[in-house]
Please model this.
Amino acid sequence: MTPTYIHHSCFLIETTTCYYLFDYEKGILPAMDVTKPIFVLSSHAHRDHYNAAIFTMLRGQGMQRIYGILSSDIKAPADVDVTPVSPGKEYQLQFGQKLTTFRSTDVGVAFLIEDKDEIIYHAGDLNDWVWEGESDAYNEQMTTDYREQIDLLAKFLNGRTIDVAFVVLDPRQEKDYDRGLCYFLAHIPTDKVYPMHYWGKPEVIDAFIKEHPEYKDQIQKTE
Model:
């Protein structure tokens, strides 16, 4: 399983049988095997997580089998095979993979894919969005909501390990930038974690590793 960072929260994963493209906004896609199916997953309609032009782009690259897995708040293109998804549901995909969704603390869903013996997680905007300037009540509720979803994920996994996870690390949260990722790493067994949603500031990954060296073997640099 080979992940490729594209931009912001967008990653492409190639497995032996298919591709998964998460939260495409913009960026250059690598050359792909046009005979392999590709699943285009978008966690919600915000413009930094979904760009409808991706389907035209993939057809232009010659991809022959394109499947959309789109959060139900996204208006699906009429000319694409789309499965709309909602939080807290399980779905069977076209080639036997299992998709489980979790509720975002912003909009839409987070994705967990079980593909044969491999498990992939993409958080979308599921994060502990604590902000300076928000009320204590807001921030406390945010943390409660976030941890509830991560605890549900841990219960669902039941001790199994995620192979690759894509998790928010947003420097705009300033001193609270690491809250969501730290809770995730402390509670979810994961081999490799790719920070995302860092708004063109990849140095935040180095800062996280320096501040939390206990996670240096799990955290992967994207740029």
